[in-house]
Structures are given as C-alpha cells and as structure tokens.
Design brief:
By secondary structure, this protein is an alpha+beta fold. The chain has two domains: 269 residues, 3-Layer(aba) Sandwich (Aminopeptidase), CATH 3.40.630; 121 residues, 2-Layer Sandwich (Alpha-Beta Plaits). Helix content is 35%, strand content 22%. The protein contains ten helices and 15 strands. Strands 1-2-6-3-7-14 form a six-stranded mixed beta sheet, with helices on both faces. A four-stranded antiparallel beta sheet has the order 10-11-9-12, with helices on one face. A three-stranded antiparallel beta sheet has the order 4-5-15. β4 and β5 form a beta hairpin. α2 crosses α4. The relative contact order is 0.20.
C-alpha cells in the first residue's frame, strides 16, 4: 500500500494554494455579473495548462460551470467530487482593506470571497493538480464541480445535477468546500420562509377605537415566536444544531395618522430531518391563535410559504468517505478531526437529493462570510489543500 502522505509531502508547495487564492480574490465574480465568466476562464486555463481535462458547461449566456476531472489510469473505481461555487455576494461598503486586492496581513488573506469560498476553490485546484501527478497509481476519478449562481438561485448546481442524473455516472462521496474552519459538518439544517399577513381595519387615528390596528397583534405574535424559538433548543441535533424560527422582515401601515389595516412579517425557518417544516408552520399558527385568545380579537390572518424548502442533509459518520476524511485530517500536522454543525445552508442539499453522500469541509469561518474585510486564514487554505489531496489519493488509491 502506497504511503500517500509521504508522496504528497514530497510534491507539496505551500505557496501555490495561497498564490491561487490571491489571484481568485482579485477577480470580481459577483453573482450575475461578467466576473463569473472571467473567473471561469482563469480556472479553466489553470487546468488546461496542467493537462487536466476540463469541461465548460454553459448554464446561461455568459455563465458557465467548470467541471474538471482527474482519471486514474488503473481503470474503474470510486468517484470523489469536490464542489465549490464561483460567485460571490457584492463587495459592499465598510472595507479598510482593498476588497479585490488579495492582500495578506499576518496569515490572513483579505478580499471579497476569500472565505466564501475562493480559499476553498484554490485549495481544490491545487489538490487536483497534485492528484494528477499520481494518476498512474489511481483507480476511478476525482471530479471538481465549480458552479455559478450559488448566491442566488442555484441554477449552476441544478444544471449539473440534471446532467449528472442523465449520465448514469455514480459519485461515491462529495465534499462541499464551504467555510467550516476545517471542521467536518455531516450536513446542514433545511431552510425555508413563511410570510404571515395580519388583517385589521383602517381609520383616522383621531377615532382609532373605530378601527383595528394590525400592528399591535403582530408585535404580540412576534414576541410569542421569540419565546417558541427558545423552546426549540430542546431539540438540538449534535451534528446539525437546533430547529429555529427567526423573524427577519416586517411591513405595516401607510402613515402615522392612519390606523394600519395590514401588517406582514416573514419568518426564516430551519428544519431537521426529524423536525419537519409542517411542525414549524404549526408553531407559527399556534402562536397566532394564542394571541387571538389573549387579546380577545378574532383578526383574520394568512400564512404563506414565501421561500421553498431546501431540505436538511445529514449523513452517517460510518461512511467510508468520512472515515478516510477523519483519518486524513488527523494525519495532517496540527489538525484534529472535529465534527461540528454548519449553521448556514448550502448546495450539499442538492447533491444529497441526487443520491450523493455529501459532507461540508473547507477553510475559513462562516462568521467572516459576506462581511466587510472578509478574510481567510492562509494556514487553513494550505491545510485544506493538503487534506483534499490526501483524501483523494487515499479514496482513489485503494487505501
């Protein structure tokens, strides 16, 4: 059996993934802008220059996924996918570092997308190159699936999933490189949203008693939902976290001198495999009914789902891919395998729904994503690249 760690260490250049991450950050690839195609070209050229097979999968005019493959020369075997997204959120304001400068201070690389998730893209790119050096001793294939539109409507991932399901190909294990701080996340909570509309009766505020103010019961309902959200902590899943209800938007009234006839608010909901979307909707409805009873007001209301459910994902720690990943993290100096919930959602859900066992693992912390002065630790980018490469060698090397 090959000593993949020693072989990898003999080839690894720690400056390469850092340099790649800097270059990616310097390309503005805000979702649904021409920058998406620019970063796709850069990544394609990187693979072409190193003799790695790459596919340009057009999703829309001027928008493309990049699919790279390293095939083992020993024939059929397992298929490992490393997934990331090409797009970022807008740069925004409040920066003290150049948002497209790729500047490194200490061991932190600053710039939009550094954490979410160009550090991971760079780590995966360099890992694929390293794996290609040993393709003569490998079975199966390593696929890198880099998609557009993750920050919007996921059309890039949906396009790739459609193609994958038609191909008859089987992926045995996948990693999504979202920022987990190099902790292993076995999935994420499901996410959806509800819009709640409360109906009152408008009139002049001078005769407010003739109307019915829709904002007042709405405030009581929101306070009740805050209480219910605290109770949901009883249902904590060690691998995913707690189900939750969070009010993120409220609209009501037309003028200070008019009793408001309507008030709306939207609730972000997070589900678990054993705590369904229907249960969360029932909690919202029960909160409304409780407020009606307490206020002795039979006001009309409506609950509509405003964002469709992205289902929760959870895989077993006993999977071969997780076992190899944990061993690989342990073997990289300074890294201890830690399993921790990923608090956001990501495209792991789409991969999981397509029958692909998927975990989340990448450099950076989710607390830095989408912020001014976004950064990623260069130490973690290097660590991630070593782990991705060693995982692939062991997964495809019949380890």
């Amino acid at each position: 059996m090959a000593d993949w760690k020693s072989l990898l260490d003999s080839e690894f250049d720690l400056f390469q993934p850092i340099h790649l991450a800097q270059n990616l950050v310097r390309i503005a690839s805000v979702s649904r802008t021409k920058g998406e195609i620019e970063i796709a070209r850069y990544i394609s050229n990187y693979f072409i220059d190193r003799g790695i097979k790459v596919e340009w999968q057009e999703v829309e005019e001027g928008r493309a996924n990049i699919i790279a493959e390293v095939e083992g020369s020993l024939g059929e075997g397992p298929c490992l996918v490393l997934n990331g997204h090409l797009d970022t959120v807008p740069v925004g304001s409040g920066w003290t570092f150049p948002p497209l400068g790729g500047q490194i201070v200490g061991n932190l690389l600053y710039g939009r997308g550094a954490c979410d998730m160009k550090g991971a893209l760079a780590a995966m790119m360099y890992a694929a190159y390293l794996v290609s050096l040993f393709s003569h001793s490998l079975y199966g294939k390593l696929k890198l699936v880099f998609v557009v539109d993750e920050e919007q409507d996921n059309i890039g991932m949906k396009e790739w999933i459609t193609t994958y399901q038609k191909s008859g190909e089987q992926v045995d294990f996948a990693l999504v490189g979202e920022p987990t701080g190099l902790n292993v996340s076995l999935g994420h909570r499901g996410v959806a949203a509800y819009r709640v509309s409360i109906k009152g009766k408008s009139c002049h505020v001078g005769i407010a008693e003739e109307g019915q103010n829709a904002i007042y019961p709405t405030c009581s309902i929101i306070r009740k939902l805050e209480e219910e959200n605290q109770k949901l902590k009883e249902f904590n899943d060690l691998d995913l976290g707690c189900p939750s209800l969070q009010v993120g938007l409220i609209k009501g009234g037309v003028s200070p001198n008019v009793v408001p006839e309507t008030c709306q608010f939207e609730v972000d909901v997070r589900t678990l495999p054993d705590f369904s979307l229907d249960r969360l909707r029932e909690i919202i409805q029960e909160a409304i009914i409780t407020v009606q009873r307490e206020r002795r007001e039979d006001f009309p209301y409506q609950i509509d789902q405003s964002i469709p459910l992205l289902p929760p994902v959870k895989i077993s720690r006993e999977l071969k891919g997780i076992e190899i990943l944990a061993k690989t993290i342990h073997d990289v100096p300074g890294e201890i395998p830690i399993f921790a919930p990923f608090p956001a959602s990501c495209e792991a859900s789409f991969l999981f729904q397509a029958g692909i066992p998927t975990a989340i693992f990448g450099p950076g912390r989710i607390t830095e994503a989408h912020t001014a002065n976004e950064f990623v630790s260069t130490t973690q980018v290097v660590g991630a690249s070593r782990i991705y490469a060693l995982l692939a060698l062991r997964f495809l090397g019949n380890d």
